[in-house]
Amino acid sequence: MSGLLQLLLVASIWLGIGVVLLAAIRPLLLALGGAGLVYRSWWLLPLVLLALCLPVPTLPMGDALPVLGHIAVPGLSAAGTMVPSGWPMALAGLWGLGMATTAVRSWRAQRRFERGMGTLRAREDGSWQASGDPGLPALVGLLRPRIVVGPRFDAQFDAAERELVLQHERNHRRHGDHLANGGLLLLRCVFWFHPLLAWAARCFLRDQELACDARTVGIRPALRGLYATALLKAQLVHPAAPMACHWRCQPLLKERIMMLGQSKRKRLPWLSGQVLVAGLCVAVGGVAWASQTGQALPSGIDVAPLPASADASPVAGDRQAQALKMPPPHYPKAAFEQSQTGEVVLRVDIGADGQVGDVRVLKASNPGVFDDVSIAAARQWTYQAAIKDGRPVASALRIPITFAMDETEPAP
Q1: CB 132 within 8 A of CB 118
Q2: What stretches pass through the bilayer (predicted)?
Q3: How far apart are CA 209 and CA 186, in angstroms?
Q4: Alpha helices of 66-158 — where are they, by DSSP H?
Q5: DSSP character at residue 350
Q6: Going by C-beta distance under 8 Å and a sequence separation of 6 or more, which residues neighbour residue 269?
Q7: Could you give the angle at which helices 87-116 and 177-190 cross, rounded to 10 degrees?
Q8: Which domains does the chain have, with CATH numbers?
Q9: Shortest CA distance to 377 belongs to which of 323, 298, 305, 322?
Q10: pTM
Q11: What digits encode the pLDDT tens for the residues 323-376?
Q12: Among 188, 185, 186, which Cα is nearest to 196's?
């Protein structure tokens, strides 16, 4: 459970870094490639999160690595009280509750929007006409998106304006903007606690509309004036649905009209813009992926480790890694009260500086009971790095930890 919380914490940090970076470089991207290039730069966020899920290369561990024995007994922390072990579960429960609440609220907002449309009637132009107007026209739906217009659509717009409005929504559907909104909703559910995500979502939807405007009038520059007139005729006074691409958007009206005039300027060639955005995503994603090395946790417990077993084989080289300090894991309170025992076998990667890197569970006789406390304790350990050819090198150790209810080492 603590591994999930740590992944959420690291992902949240990188999500914030990505949002701040995109905000900082937006004026440059806007000047170089226009609204379309800015909108494509938002790919940075999902790619950074994906990079954090990719495995990091680890040191191979063979039979030649030493095996250390270690016994954990019910004990007290340095403060003199039993160390609590239920907080990871409590935090995970709080995160799950927030995620479920955000999902339910979004679902209710979507349902409210769809009920507000009333009955739908197919039109000859391929769109659907609603009997109500909760904020139309819009592209509604995720898997089977439909262009839905309001009951006064024909009266409000003339034929040329209606074609521009429908073309705008078709561009949303053709470029998968409805799927992007679904991904945004998923991010908002998972990272509901992130302080920057709500602001980033508003910026994303703004850039989505600006990019769609640019695509719509880009092939017919002479229709900019007509397009601006259609925008002015439409005023969005209803709350937006989380799974819809709206034509009308009052807060963006002024910026959208201003961007129509700026789109006349010569932009960076399309291919150069793609290379620029791809390079940005790869660079930031690579840094995020490379940052996944182990992170040490502090501890106030200080006891000596048991010596290595007599039949342990040395690491290939001049000297094997040697333990300096191995504070034992605390006994989980629930396991102690239920008299549970077990053994956890860890793989501990040790860097050339002697610091503990990646820690993972290879085997556990009582899975899920002692895993988290064992990993937390292993990240507090310190070592002298292995020596090969007179220089410190990285290595790995396989370390079994026995959780017993007394201080007697179990028989081999």
Answers
A1: yes
A2: 39-57, 268-290
A3: 20
A4: 87-116, 153-156
A5: E
A6: none
A7: 140
A8: 2-57+92-290 (no CATH), 296-403 (3.30.2420.10)
A9: 298
A10: 0.68
A11: 888 888 888 888 888 888 888 888 888 888 888 888 889 888 888 888 888 998
A12: 188
